[in-house]
Amino acid sequence: VVQLNDFPYLSVLTVAPLVGAVVVALLPRRAPELAKRVALIWSLGVLVLAGVTWAAFNADGDRLQLRESYSWIPRWGINVTFATDGIALVMLALIALLVPLVILASWHDAEKPGIKRSVPAFFALILALECTMIGVFAAADVFLFYVFFEVMLVPMYFLIGSYGGARRQYAAVKFFLYSLVGGLFMLAALVGLWVAGGQTLDWQALTQADLSTGTERWLFLGFFLAFAIKAPFFPFHTWLPDAGGAAPAGIAALLVGLLDKVATFGILRYSLPLFPDASRWFAPAALTLAVIGIIYAALLAVGQNDLKRLVAYTSIAHFGFIGVGIFAFTTQAGTGAVLYMVNHGLATGLLFVVVGMFVARRGSALISDFGGAGKLVPLLAGVLLFAGLASLSMPGMAPFISEFLVLAGTFTENRPVAVIATLGIILAAAYVLWMIQRTTHGPLNPTLQSVDGMRRDLTIRERVVVAPMIALIVLFGFYPKPLTDVINPAVEATLADLEPVTTEAQP
Amino acid sequence: VTDFTLPDIDYAAIAPLLVLFGVACAGVLVEAFLPRRLRHPVQLWLALLGVLAALVAVVVRAGAEDIVTAGGSVTVDGPALFMQGALLVFGLVALLLIGERRVGVGAFVAQAAIPVGSMADRRQANAPGATEVFPLTMFSLGGMALFITASDLLVMFIALEVLSLPLYLMCALARRQRLISQEAAVKYFLLGAYASGFFLFGVVLAYGFAGSVDFAAIHTAVDESTMNPALLYVGLALIVMGLLFKAAAAPFHVWTPDVYQGSPTPITAFMAACTKVAAFGGLLRVTYVAFEQLADDWLPVLGVIAVLTMLVGAVMAVTQTDIKRLLAYSWIANAGYVLVGVLAVGRAGASTTMFYLVAYGFAVLGAFAVISLVRDQDGEAPHLSRWAGLGRSSPVVAGVFTLVMLALAGIPLTGGFTAKFAVFGAALEAGETWLVIAGVISSVIIAFPYLRVVVMMWLSEPTDATARMVSPGVLTGAALGVGAFATIALGVVPGPVLDLAHDAALFLR
Question: pTM (2 decimals)?
């Protein structure tokens, strides 16, 4: 009899989407509708599982909970260990929530005219991606984390490369190569950590390891490089606009909203606690990169004429904010950064999904191909406005709280960084509002009327997609407590890992 | 004149060698006495059962006490048995590919001696292929198995010739593109002959220094001999050069792409998997057993060679448009990674090197099985542009090739990743950080060509030039399955093989 309190929540949560992926992949190619339905129902099942997992987590309990460990490669002391803290938990919930919405939003994305691609394979790949994403957040062994971190590339590569738009091959290869380069440097650091840490890669054991200053800095650099490419931080960001621009909108939402969060999560879970001295030593450099990213990406976003690339650039700016929040080393900013990860997933996910709806209707992602679209599809334009306002951190919406926490938490510690980052808010208003103005407002672009799709406003399926995201953005805008309750202890514990050495250094 | 006395021979210990050579000789008799139509099935079954019997002999022997037998010329110890086992498994899989006749008409020409382009050559275009290839394979395999266990330099040299000479011939047996095949054989033979010459000269010098060709005696002599140490160093350098030629380490690698491209694909597969095991098995034994005390001297030199090999292989692979040449450069780069394992020295070095060889062998066997299936009416179509969109028409076989590419690129959950982690970990532990850094850089570079193949198969649209993927026969299908299964198994549950390699990694001196 399985006791409910030692039910293997996390491994079941990880494996469940994979089983679904296999099931969907085995469905006949000629039954696309069946594949879609099975995938959707399966992902909803995973959502329920995630809800159960959330309920089993005790916000006031230990830092890492729901721990399970199985021996994997005994010779190297490597185990399959799953465990979650508050930070990972909210990300797991976000994954489980966004995947069914994206499946629903991408209902027709695999059936592009002229391209004969397998529909079941598309949805199977999404579920496989979900498995790797859940695994990467649920892992509590650095080796296991690395395995998921790398394997994650494969389904995403095929999703972009096979089902994307123009230049999808170029974008997919660029995405894969950038990530692989980062991953291989992380592999070197991983091997180094394994040797230096006494032949173990268990997270808990490694936090106790005593590393020399030089070793710690090199290892930090290896991990940071991988994360900076993944996030991406300036100047490793050039793959994201290409990948985000070429991927189907729903996949882009997963890429930017969830997959790239692995990087900021990795910094919080692995870089800071395992290399505390090096983290503090590198913090000014990391903050500088983050701030440059905020301003630089925002400026580029202002100049974009491609909706999807524009959203991708805004994300780079947002990742700059998250980076600032992490490396400010205050509880407020840290909590803000984690909250930002969730809110950004919702807001930018929504933005990508809505942009995808526009693109699907118009058959083009260029802003200049729209103009006055609000007159034709008022509801859809309204949702775009909402998503835009959310992503520029309008008060009353969830992203506002996280951005405020990050800036307020940074201001006390590092005034110049906070001040420059605040400029990013102004630029955010510029690129979002200008984009909305050129797309949905102003005089109606005459060519739009001749496009059939543009005469169809939000369908029921699309309403079902956007409604939960809008509701959550508003809910967390006024009442973020359910999130902060689980995030706060984890952030405090992370910062505590950084602390003790500081006090020893200054007796 | 002293009486010639027969040395003590432990027949049980050398049973695998006896079986292999026995079957090879029987194969020659089959060629001579059996009617043509019976030869292929008889030869195939004889070879398969022979290798299987040898494998059983190895497995039975596992765990028994290490011994030196046959007058001190053969050492049967852990590494010898482990690598013999690997060799025989790879040999078995390669034999499946060699025996395949359902794909095309088979990879081998009926009579290699007929001049290319002559009337007779045109007549034999679709004649059943030569069955001499089976005894040749068995001789070569026997030579490799002996090479790994040889514990004196002369026996090693004999084994080197026994494994090489059949290979030179086998390279020339391609049914299609026979001129390229013959050119490959001549190149391989000429350069191989030079390498053998170097090796033999090295043996002479080492004998001059130590007064013996026996590894254990050389080991003692390194400390005690009063001869000029220049003999020793030059001898060691020449011996290692001969071995590195077979292993295709830079700068002794130039023959590899041509030979890979020209040889019949099953033979390329056989060389890629088996010769590599033999070459590194020999290198391990020579450096770890005979010249161990000189580690401080050969480590930096071999280190430079390893770095050079990894980088040359990776950089050259980027520009290749022929899949067989691409894999040849990949083979060179991988030789560099194996060398990193060798340079970790000691038990960790030996065990990770052996694990790497196993992981690489399975992956590459799978790869060549796929290559033999991509064809048009003129035979195989190894040019990359002809692989466009193959994933669309044959997702399973293309999937296997993708798996192999991902394994070679070092993506986790494949044997390639575990192997890389193993050798890099061992090297770091031994303090060879620079080798690991060079290894990572070359891995980054070589990821690009691997990825390009994947792009071709899955993301490109099929064109008129796209070749056809013929359905694998039972034999090729089995080879394909073994390669794919082992690659995944070594990535997902590498524990047992890692343990086996670790337990077997102690050399007997």
Answer: 0.91
